[in-house]
């Protein structure tokens, strides 16, 4: 348990990077950080061990993770040395987020913690509070979280640290993002592909990422894969990922201090040399970036043996190495362990860190715990947005003009890209689908980011590109999160079905945002914006495996003030919604919109008004002329809107005197009661749209249950009959997809007919007509493989309107 | 477009692996497969080009993927040669699932397709149907799917091919699973970590996986990362993954045939040598398994130039290289392209494949399209299951005994492991959490699978282990799917929050199961069983980032006949549910159960009866004595059940004459109407439990909206008041977690008091008591950091019951 005494294996003749005095002080900081870490995990009181340790000084429930912590502390103090030596601007990302006791200890030693939380002062009482609050009810979590100064990375689910690091480094040429990757986390898929981030990093205009792979050898109960493959295999793997690995391996602290200092000197020198070469115009080749592999014992400096079992260097030190303080033996081990750090050499009697040690910390914003990039909202500048209405599709009357909504959105995004080219704070992310999603106008303004080899046939690739495409939704999401959390803006476009790949990352980000709002010093960051397209109704190539509209259900489970869901029915509403989302902050906005040619309904003025309301009556499509309608036909989503209007057309022709009100919903959250969501309609406004007693045939883009769930508290909810995706998918025609799920015009019209009793004897005839049409459709596609012209070429307004 | 004529670069003096005749026939098969692939993408009729091609012979909508297909066809024919040469038992997994035209073409050439689908016969009419059905409405999808013979891998979302391959190889010592990994797919996280599967493969008792990384260079619109890093980096990466890469690179067909044949000879020789060494007891070292890197042009043998742009060897050939058949130039290119394969040399005039070419196919089950492992249900043997009741916790009366439910389940699983040790068809999967989830009894019967380096401190690691632990939920899920799809059994235990990581994989498997049911020749496979534990209510270490009960919401969106969701409230019900799930087939079962010490409610007889009903009245906990109750207190989940009973206790003491009925729900699907789910209660049975008019205070484990959604059509749904997770999480005590989400006994009791008007003037007093208790709780945990003894040590039955 001695942390810096044994150095038998040390070669004294070797030239040392650190002077004896430097080494002594660095070791002292490390001991201080380790001491504070153990204190946080174990102690309620007696923080300086000024009395003999008694069981009442120990927390009644011991919760925390020691195993990874001393390694993080070791890295942290060495980074501080190199920051000071080169006046570096460095951000720290701790992949092993459960090492929070270490991260927090260092922020306290640097003074940042007490500056932000004055009650956790730099004295004995502050220490007591620091220890007590950790993993304590109504205290702070046992992993890095939004209330940890200097952190942009929640220590929750593992796998995203390195993607966050790249996201933070993009467009921050003077920043070095040091990212500690735990060897447990390294086994996850998202982390395993994140190493390729270096093919998307421009040494000229982006910052550097310095990965430190921390091999402490064990997960909860297992060894880790990367710690148990041969040294050759590991080096080969990391070189294959495009890195130059520098190994720091051992356990003797003095020896390790020297090795780590040398390694960091070399790594920083390589980074500077790469950047200089590239920025002086010397090379366009992708460099081999340095990285460090730190192999150190799990629970390093912790008790060697507990209860007869090996603890340091074993999976047994993953969490709390021992508990049950009713056993005097345990109390003794704890006290010896903590005293092995020699606290009286580190803190004065009042609990203040000794000046010579405190002097190791960088000054002001150079402290990693105070790096402004970790509070990105404080750096964020609003985007310069062109006036979106100039991209409007001219819609002289509803339904006559055909346009591709996302293509129009692309022209707006192109100019957003141009307007913010100088500040370099906007990027678009997607898994190789930007053009497939018809946003190709963006490529008039910028390229796809690419820093690997290129050929003459490549399309819009460049190291300077601002469109980030890799076939990994995880990487796209992780990069975007890192980019946003450091104060920039972005949009993620994705096939609707496959956005489920990042369900869990969405969760973590939503939780980060919710918690951040309760942390007063965190400034709001730009919203995370999703465009979900190539959606369930138009997967003509791809079939059932590409058909899932359930991401919005997942989103709707999160806190109402964090999430927004939009279904713009055409191009102009999509423009309006996009502009709104790009201006918002601290939210997750989901926009679902199609990319296929489709009728346009609203001119720009009408679109703005409709989007501002969030949902509203489309009088031009209704036949109720302001009277009480017989039925309300509601719709949300582009395809359901089209089918609803086609159904209105059918009904108009078959039952001319039926009074129909059409309601379109753009902002799904308007359906939720006002008390639960700020976008929710008041009950009066809701009833004015949906009535209190009329049947509502609601054509919805996704799973019907979401609508039922949102309107559950509304007066007329018993009368809501929702058509949506019934999990009936296949490779088929667009119209056949809606037929299979009973979302098509014929099924909608038939449902209306069923629900309006006063229709009397015309019911039978009209229903028969609908059924005939459905049979005709089936025969037609079986024969021709395409939709019958009647549905494919259908246009609003119906002829009958003229004299309707 | 010539496929086998140019061979300028060929070194004739070099020793050739293939004789000239072999090469000629292999090339002929390849041309036939390519011809059939193009035919499927393009043609409606004129399948043998016996007339000049006219536009009416071409499909009106062209949907499919050409780019990857010729490479797959090339691989397939070469695999056939090596299968025949060594009588190999080989399963084929096509990661690039959109290469289905190729996969299907080969299954037709092998005869399997026509055996299974006689209408798609091996003649001209069969060819016409083969072409027409592809990506045609009511035909077959454009990617490999359950109706593709020989396939266990849906060509939908990318990333899971290699994990599926390992899953298939486990415990199949004589099987070689050849897995083509596309260079697009290789960028995904799940695939990037799947390479490490070789650290979990035992050369003695498992089969071999032969990965073929197919570098065709492009995704939809971008180059691929692995195709654009240096040859050195790529080789280094693959060696780092533990493989010996064999490179096959070029585009001249004759040259490539020789190279591929040599590469496969070498790869199979290495596999056999590794297996022999290991099986003869010669080596326990992890071998470096061979793999092949095939670098060939995208859209190989397709048109070189279309509309003035490069097509073969470019991203432009990713899907359909050209369409718009109204342009005569396009029709000409298509005809030339197809004729370049010289169909008249391949098929006789009746459309039958020429005998000398057909003879290349392996016989019977050796055909990859007929490999029995690809129809795993046909091989599946039911598990031998010990009588689960012998593991029962003795529960002489409800609430007195404390046990850890998952620990008890572990003893059952231990013996399931033992009973099936001989047949080696059961494994347990989890991300390093088997012991953390308290299933450690399993380690009495087996170890953790591990084939990397070991040390003396390692806990239950062995190459023979049957517990698969890697810190990748993706790998666990992928392995398990591959294992199930090849006819075996398994269980995946996972922290509840992090199972969202595989939301999207769950989707794909659910869709596979749904579609498989419509494919008559596919036999049912064992169900995919999840145990979700370390659940939202007991994340005492981990806090908000580990708190999410939404996976079941995601599951509930899928087709009712595929999914089951269970909330056993104690150990005996968990045993009963586990036994049921392990006996079921073609389903996805989700079991949510806690691992913490908790009161036991039902003895085994009662547990069996309760689980058989799925939900039922707990008369022993109710105070209504069979009369009409004032209120119904329903619960689903272990923690909600505990809080409900504690609330009953409180109400009993404060309002002794209140008549309460307690209903516990184990099988969530009983709430759904019978018409929608086979487990659903009839309306009569539902009303008998929940009444038609009484208030129901429903304490539910997850998000309340799911309950509302399931009971939406029930008569009494307006009276359901659901308490559940309100997305209020933190690192805190167990009881504080339920308080924050109003799921605790005091909030439940208060809600009952609010809903039962007849209580009159006792309301105020009882409500005050509940509020006082909540305040007391808050003060207590702030001071002590643990829950107050009154809630921590609370036990049923309440004293008042004795004279109640």
Task: Report on this structure.
2 copies of one chain form a homodimer. In chain A, 36% of the residues lie in helices and 13% in strands. In chain A, helix 17 links the parallel strand 15 (563-566) and strand 16. The first copy, chain A, is elongated. Chain A starts with 19 loop residues before the first helix and ends with a helix. Mean pLDDT of chain A is 94; it is low at 1-13. Chains A, B: Residues 24-378 form the Xylulose 5-phosphate/Fructose 6-phosphate phosphoketolase N-terminal domain. Chains A, B: Its EC number is 4.1.2.-. Chains A, B: Its cofactor is thiamine diphosphate. Chains A, B: This is Probable phosphoketolase.
Which structural category do the helix and sheet elements of chain A fall into?
alpha/beta
Average pLDDT of chain A: 94
Strand order of the largest sheet of chain A: 12-9-13-14-16-15
- Percent range of helical residues of chain A: 25-40%
Main sheet: strands, sense, barrel of chain A: 6 strands, parallel
Q: What shape does the CA trace of chain A take?
A: elongated
- Runs of chain A in which pLDDT lies below 50 for 5 or more consecutive residues are 1-13
Tell me the total number of β-strands of chain A: 22
Largest interface: A-B, 126 and 124 residues
Could you give the distance between the termini of chain A?
90 Å
Strand content of chain A: 5-15%
Gyration radius of chain A, rounded: 31 Å
Oligomer: homodimer
Q: Count the helices of chain A. How many?
A: 26
EC number (chains A, B): 4.1.2.-
Family (chains A, B): Belongs to the XFP family.
Protein name (chains A, B): Probable phosphoketolase
Keywords (chains A, B): Lyase, Thiamine pyrophosphate
